[in-house]
């Protein structure tokens, strides 16, 4: 395992992703809460940071159990820290050291720099530079402007590089990271989805024994993969609950339930549509609607869970980006922890322990594990869908009739994307039912019906997004189909806003 000590850089997660792509297991820990250094840790990477090493408040990690004892790679801030605190000097940079640069010197006899091109491009992102290195440090690469771009320490397996190898724009970054984890640290590159399934199932078997586990399925990728893994470990001691909140896509409840049963899962489908509609009646405030949907979900889930006698565990599909403790901007102990509960948080009195078999995986790894488990690609490739479902795509109050109208329009759009081969190019798509009525004409009749907005975006994580430039012919066909087939809609618009400043959902 490679330990990544996080000093708060925006790129820390990317380092972990790159190592995982090299089939190497790694974990990110905040610099001020490092784990115990055991023989399991084959090497350590120090990340970048928003801090300057010269700053009074800059992180000052205690590396006494690491430096000189284990392979160590400092990246950006990490490299500057290893220089500044061991006899070198870091100063504010006089020239711009942001963005692309090209190496002008590479010592390929250094293990870290093997196969790194003599003039290859690197990505710089720092305001400081290493003005001088301690005596026993040797330069292993430079750019025109940055003489000490990379170094090694004589007699140690310690290296530092001022650029970011984890960023795509560092063209040989992957070679460099591979050199470190394979040739310097001796990692076996045996972290694969199959190996993950094997070890996780064995761990779950041991941890859970004959205990019963309850898991809320949502139809999404994460909860489905978590369920199949748990099922492989404990069979029918896993009790899955899939709640129809009346805000799912057209026919989704039936179809998803069918495919879960096809996978051998022990699933109880609960039709709670009317409970949700009743609780939502007359409410048009987006946040209140979210809260009501969350609360009713917990009530329904709780009622169903009680029917499973002696359940001890709650299974969740939490994934790595949701649990990584990232160092807050102040670097202090007030580290922010994002935590995410797929089931919306359960009442304390349920007293269930939580089991989260995917909590160390990134989204793409969850999909790879799902594939290795033989899960239907249609489930693995599904677009994200918000927990409150169509409830936040019906602007204003929710009624069963509005849900029906939106489900019809949404189904035409989504199936249209699939038929046109565009579904996988889109990160997320859906239709918004607007609280706007407009005049239209159908045949000889004047109509006065609702407008909808189609929304399709490209994104990698939902944090930022661009509207999809879907072909006009495709949009024309979808618009035509919706207006002709869905009674209650006479106008279709296409949302061409990016996030930020807009959001993906309209509520
Ligand atoms: P926004 O609208 O904030 O959405 O750009 C970003 C991503 O989050 C999803 N989303 C939600 N997911 N509960 C969820 O589980 C919610 O209340 C919620 N609101 C937005 C949205 O679908 C998109 O993928």
The N- and C-terminal alpha carbons lie at a distance of 42 Å
In CATH, what is the homologous superfamily of the largest domain? HUPs
| Radius of gyration computed on alpha carbons | 27 Å
The CATH topology of the largest domain turns out to be Rossmann fold
The portion of residues assigned to helices is 25-40%
Bound small molecules, deduplicated: xanthosine-5'-monophosphate
Q: pLDDT under 50 segments (min length 5)?
A: 328-344
Number of strands: 22
Please give the count of helices.
13
Known CATH architecture of the largest domain: 3-Layer(aba) Sandwich
Which CATH first-tier class of the largest domain would you pick?
Answer: Alpha Beta
Strand order of the largest sheet: 2-1-3-4-11-10-9-6-7
Which of globular, elongated, flat, extended, rod-shaped describes the shape?
Answer: globular
The overall pLDDT, averaged over residues, is 92
Structure description:
With 507 residues, this protein is an alpha/beta fold. The chain has three domains: 2-184, 3-Layer(aba) Sandwich (Rossmann fold), CATH 3.40.50.880; 193-380, Rossmann fold (3-Layer(aba) Sandwich); 398-494, GMP Synthetase, Chain A, domain 3 (2-Layer Sandwich). The chain is built from 13 helices and 22 strands. The strands form five sheets. It has a nine-stranded mixed beta sheet with strand order 2-1-3-4-11-10-9-6-7, sandwiched between helices. A five-stranded parallel beta sheet has the order 14-13-12-15-18, sandwiched between helices. Helix 7 packs antiparallel against helix 8 (286-306). The protein starts with a strand and ends in a 13-residue tail after the last strand. The site of xanthosine-5'-monophosphate has 11 residues, from loops. Xanthosine-5'-monophosphate binds at residues 290, 384, 386-388, 428, 462, 499, 503-505.
């Amino acid at each position: 395992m490679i330990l990544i000590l996080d000093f708060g850089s925006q790129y820390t997660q990317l380092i972990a992703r790159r190592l995982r792509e090299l089939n190497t297991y790694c974990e990110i820990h905040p610099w001020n809460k490092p784990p115990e250094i055991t023989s399991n840790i084959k090497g350590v990477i120090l990340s970048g940071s928003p801090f300057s090493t010269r700053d009074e408040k800059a992180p000052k990690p205690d590396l006494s159990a690491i430096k000189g004892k284990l392979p160590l790679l400092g990246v950006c801030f990490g490299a500057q820290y290893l220089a500044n605190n061991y006899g070198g000097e870091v100063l504010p940079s006089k020239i711009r050291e942001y963005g692309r640069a090209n190496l002008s010197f590479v010592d390929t006899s250094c293990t870290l720099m093997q196969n790194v091109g003599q003039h290859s491009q690197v990505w710089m992102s720092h305001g400081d530079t290493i003005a001088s290195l301690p005596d026993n440090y040797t330069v292993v690469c430079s750019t025109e402007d940055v003489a000490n771009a990379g170094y090694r320490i004589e007699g140690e397996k310690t290296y530092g590089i001022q650029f970011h190898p984890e960023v795509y724009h560092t063209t040989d970054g992957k070679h460099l990271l591979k050199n470190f984890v394979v040739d310097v640290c001796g990692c076996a590159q045996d972290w694969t989805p199959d190996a993950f399934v094997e070890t996780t199932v064995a761990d779950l078997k041991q941890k859970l024994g004959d205990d019963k586990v309850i898991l809320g399925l949502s139809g999404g990728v994460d909860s489905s993969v978590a369920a199949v893994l748990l099922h492989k470990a404990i069979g029918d001691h896993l009790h899955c609950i899939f709640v129809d909140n009346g805000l799912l896509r057209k026919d989704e409840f039936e179809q998803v339930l069918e495919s879960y049963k096809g996978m051998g899962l022990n699933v109880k489908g609960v039709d709670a549509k009317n409970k949700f509609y009743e609780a939502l009646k007359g409410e048009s405030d987006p946040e209140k609607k979210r809260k009501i949907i969350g609360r009713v979900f917990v009530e329904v889930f709780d009622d169903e869970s009680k029917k499973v006698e002696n359940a001890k565990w709650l299974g969740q599909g939490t994934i790595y980006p949701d649990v990584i403790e990232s160092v807050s901007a102040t670097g202090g102990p007030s580290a922010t922890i994002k935590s995410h509960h797929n089931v919306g948080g359960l009442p304390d009195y349920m007293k269930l322990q939580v089991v989260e078999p995917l909590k160390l995986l990134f989204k793409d790894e969850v999909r790879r594990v799902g594939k290795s488990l033989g899960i239907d690609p249609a489930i693995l490739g599904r677009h994200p869908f918000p927990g409150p479902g169509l409830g936040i795509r019906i602007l204003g109050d929710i009624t069963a009739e509005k849900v029906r109208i939106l489900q019809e329009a949404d189904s035409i759009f989504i199936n249209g994307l699939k038929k046109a081969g565009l579904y996988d190019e889109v990160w997320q798509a859906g239709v918004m039912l607007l609280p706007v009525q407009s005049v239209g004409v159908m045949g000889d009749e004047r109509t006065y019906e609702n407008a909808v907005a189609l929304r399709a975006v490209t994104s990698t994580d939902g944090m930022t997004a661009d509207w999809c430039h879907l072909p006009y012919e495709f949009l024309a066909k979808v618009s035509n189909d919706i207006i002709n087939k869905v009674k209650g809609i006479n106008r279709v618009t296409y949302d061409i806003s990016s996030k930020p400043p807009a959001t993906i959902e309209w509520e």
